[in-house]
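[Discussion] Sanity-checking designs against the backbone

I'm trying to build intuition for which residues belong where. Below is a structure token string of 563 positions. I'd appreciate it if someone posts a full sequence so I can compare it with mine line by line.
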């Protein structure tokens, strides 16, 4: 049966309005008969895409879900909003043992939370196809891809004005809402705290390496420095504990050429593969994954030599090697900095020089050892350095995606070489309330259905599509409310507190108040007399009875077919 063409009805109505009305009524009756027997027909010809009003396209897994419902047709699904928040499989994800992709992560792997500390992957879904995917671009010119239901920890302009906390929203919510209001960017995500990689066994001290990368000779461990910056050379001598020599450069008495250590240092540089032709300098991966102290020392060496700081406290690193500049940007981001990269073609004696690559940021910690530069640092506390604002959200071609759940306190984890803070998908093992009052694991279902969830941004109930994946078994705890309601969920299941903050079930405290349906305005609640008979039949079939707002949680009415 094909969907009724509204344009055809309009054309018929011009010639014979009565016949057009009869066609519409007969079509509706036939559709209701089909929809009552098979939810696939209902989804195809009754429900509409909530964003553009078009017919809903059904994947084979939807058909499988409908067959499951027909086996147990009296099913109500109650779950946390937007299950199945996914990222492309090639998204890089940092962890204490190095980098993996979203496609490679498995349960038990370690990644990092927004607090910079390691956390564990608790669950990982199968690969999902055909999802809407968006490119999110930030004001630091970085970007990531995520599906429409992927969650983000954000603040809005109003949140920041009211000094309110962060909230969790989906990519689709960000895409629908304005990105700019009163000439201010609306949405912002936090920058990460310094990432806690374990200490590395490094062949060359990270500060010494940074100094050499900034002002050293590519083929040997020697540097050139100005007499005003002699403290950099002296600090390297102190670190190395080897005899170092320094000689003034002929014709340039304020400049000195100096060796970094002796034979031991030279052997260490060679063994690490650091020496080579001009333009071949690089930061070894182990240094980018060193401890916070090791990475801070490396950054200080780079900035004491090739860095500059403005009177206002903005730091700039400049180098003609793009790969090296990119690595410095990654290094600074791993320490919690908000970094912008750019390039320019400077002039030398009035003529264009080689393109220079710039890395700029306002530090939130001391990043220099050189006293004259360190004195200019203005720590970025309380300023926008701790936020990355969203500049654009645009739909891109769909790619395979999957999602994970992690054990970090706020369910966050880091993605990309720019250490973007994002939010995990809902922890698996959530429970489903059936019409007979029993709870069953949500993984016993195969896929999606329509759900009502609270949009915290508007305070209204909205319709979303829930997706279900099999992620194993989890420990379940029970919570009892003063209304008489009982909740059985996994320890990591989020519950909405009255201050509109999601709290893990394991962190719920006696005496706290949580949002229930009695607190909300349910637009779908109604009396029998308000529902035409045909619509009531369909609603009764899908909802296993109507839903009323009550002093407790959900009350299910008995369908006429049950009597």
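Best answer:
Here's mine. Compare freely.
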């Amino acid at each position: 049966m094909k969907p009724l063409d509204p344009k055809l009805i309009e054309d018929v109505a011009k010639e014979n309005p009565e016949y057009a009305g009869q066609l519409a009524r007969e079509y509706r009756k036939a559709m209701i008969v089909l929809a009552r027997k098979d939810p696939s027909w209902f989804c195809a010809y009754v429900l509409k895409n909530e964003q553009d009003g078009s017919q809903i396209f059904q994947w084979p897994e939807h058909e499988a879900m409908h067959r499951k419902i027909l086996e147990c047709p009296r099913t109500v699904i109650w779950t946390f909003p937007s299950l199945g928040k996914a990222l492309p499989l090639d998204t890089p994800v940092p962890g204490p043992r190095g980098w993996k992709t979203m496609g490679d992560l498995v349960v038990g792997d370690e990644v990092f939370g927004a607090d910079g500390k390691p956390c564990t992957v608790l669950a990982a879904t199968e690969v999902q196809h055909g999802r809407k995917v968006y490119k999110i671009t930030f004001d630091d010119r970085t970007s990531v891809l995520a599906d429409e239901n992927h969650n983000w920890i954000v603040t809005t302009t109003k949140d920041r004005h009211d000094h309110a906390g962060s909230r969790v929203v989906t990519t689709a919510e960000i895409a629908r809402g304005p990105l700019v209001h009163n000439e201010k960017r609306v949405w912002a995500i936090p920058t990460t705290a310094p990432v806690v990689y374990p200490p590395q066994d490094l062949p060359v001290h990270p500060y010494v390496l940074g100094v050499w990368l900034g002002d050293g000779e590519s083929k040997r461990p020697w540097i050139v420095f100005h007499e005003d910056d002699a403290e950099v050379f002296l600090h390297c001598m102190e670190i190395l504990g080897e005899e170092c020599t320094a000689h003034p450069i002929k014709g340039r008495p304020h400049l000195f050429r100096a060796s970094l250590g002796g034979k031991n240092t030279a052997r260490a540089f060679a063994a690490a593969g650091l020496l080579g032709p001009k333009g071949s300098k690089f930061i070894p991966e182990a240094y980018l994954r060193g401890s916070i102290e090791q990475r801070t020392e490396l950054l200080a060496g780079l900035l004491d030599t090739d860095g500059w700081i403005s009177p206002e406290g903005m730091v700039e690193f400049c180098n003609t090697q793009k790969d090296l500049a990119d690595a410095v940007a990654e290094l600074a981001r791993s320490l919690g900095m908000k970094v912008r990269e750019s390039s320019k073609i400077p002039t030398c004696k009035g003529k264009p020089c080689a393109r220079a690559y710039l890395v700029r940021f306002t530090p939130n910690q001391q990043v220099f050892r050189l006293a004259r530069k360190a004195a200019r640092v203005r720590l970025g506390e309380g300023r926008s350095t701790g936020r990355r604002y969203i500049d654009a959200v645009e739909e891109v071609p769909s790619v395979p995606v999957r999602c994970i759940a992690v054990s970090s306190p706020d369910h966050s984890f880091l993605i990309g070489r720019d250490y973007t803070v994002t939010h995990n998908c809902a922890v698996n093992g959530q429970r489903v309330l059936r019409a007979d009052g029993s709870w069953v694991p949500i993984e016993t279902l195969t896929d999606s259905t329509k759900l009502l969830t609270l949009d915290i941004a508007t305070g209204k109930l909205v319709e979303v599509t829930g997706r279900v994946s099999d992620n194993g078994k989890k420990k379940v705890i029970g919570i009892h409310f003063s209304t008489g309601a009982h909740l059985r969920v996994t320890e990591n299941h989020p519950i909405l507190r009255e201050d509109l903050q999601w709290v893990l079930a394991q962190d719920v405290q006696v005496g706290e108040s949580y949002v229930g349906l009695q607190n909300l305005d349910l637009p779908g609640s109604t009396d029998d007399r308000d529902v035409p008979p045909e619509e009531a039949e369909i609603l009764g079939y899908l909802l296993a009875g109507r839903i009323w707002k009550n002093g407790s949680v959900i009350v299910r009415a008995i369908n006429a077919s049950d009597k």
